Every structure is written in structure tokens, then in C-alpha cells.
Amino acid sequence: MKKQEIAKLSLEGLKKEIINLKGQLVSLKLTHKMAPIENPLRIKGMRREIARLSTELTNRSTQA
Q1: Where are the alpha helices (DSSP H) in 1-64?
Q2: CA 26 to chain centre
Q3: CA 33, CA 18: separation in Å to the nearest integer?
Q4: pLDDT in tens, 13-32
Q5: 51: how many CB neighbours lie within 10 A of its CB?
Q6: What is the pLDDT of residue 18?
Q7: Contacts of 40 (CB under 8 A, 6+ apart)
Q8: Where are the domains of the chain?
Q9: For residue 37, what are the contacts with CB-CB under 8 A and spacing of at least 6?
Q10: Which of 46, 48, 47, 28 has its CA nearest to residue 38?
């Protein structure tokens, strides 16, 4: 997700997206533990995406 797309999301949208990505990350990690996934860098990318969304959520919360 790009910065412009993140900026367009509402607070509720940010929270839902974070929850969704965290669930996907847990699932991906479990899959990787059982058998190596094709692209393990997806885990890293997903963690960073969650961090970007969390940062935006924090910034909006402190501004309000």
C-alpha cells in the first residue's frame, strides 16, 4: 500500500487493515514454520506494512 492510499484511509479503515494484516502475518509465519514458503521476504514486507499503518494511526491519534 502506498503512502497516498494510507493517507486516504479513515481511522476505522486503518484499524481494520492492521488487524487484517496481523492475521495474515500469523498465518504466513505458521505456514513458513511447517514448510518453507516460496518467498520468505513477504514476511518482512508484511511487518513493514503493519509498521507503516501503525505509524500513520499514531500520528493521527496524536494530532486529534
Answers
A1: 3-8, 11-34, 41-63
A2: 11
A3: 22
A4: 999 999 999 999 999 999 99
A5: 11
A6: 98
A7: 32
A8: 3-63
A9: 28, 31, 43
A10: 28
Q: Which residues contact 50 (CB under 8 A, 6 or more apart)?
A: 18, 21, 22, 25
Q: Which three cell numbers stand for residue 14?
A: 486503518
Say how many residues make up the chain: 64
pLDDT tens readout for residues 30-57: 999 999 999 999 999 999 999 999 999 9
Please name the residue that has the C-alpha cell 494510507.
6
CATH of domain 3-63: 1.10.287
The amino acid at residue 62 is T
Mean pLDDT of the chain: 95
Of 51, 11, 6, 46, give the one whose Cα is nearest residue 25. Answer: 46
Residue indicated by cell numbers 516460496: 38
